[in-house]
Amino acid sequence: MQFLDDILAGRVVPGMNFNQKVWAMTVRIPAGKVATYGQVAKALGSPGAARAVGNALNKNPYAPRVPCHRVVGSTGSLTGFAGGLPKKQQLLIEEGVACAAHRVVMDRVEWVEL
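== methylated-DNA--[protein]-cysteine S-methyltransferase ==
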C-alpha cells in the first residue's frame, strides 16, 4: 500500500489521506502510554474530528503494528476496538496501563504528547 513505510515510521507526509495520517500518528504512541481520540485529531490539525479518528482506527489494517488499542475516549473509556473491549483492556494491562471496568484509571495512566 502507498505510504506504508511512512505510516509504520510514524511520519505524516503530503498526499496521505486522513486515515493514513491517523495511523501514522497512532504509531507514535509507545507501549504503556495512551492518547485520546481528541488528542490525535488535534495533533493532525482537526480538533473536532475525534469521531473521524475513531472511524479511521476501526479500519486499521495494520494492527498491532499500528497500536489502535492505545487510543481511548476522553473520559478514559475503552471505546471503539474491533477486537472487543475485553481484548483492548487485556492489551493495555499487558503494557502496564492501569485499567478497570473497561476504562483506563485516569490518575494512574501515562498520557503521550503527540
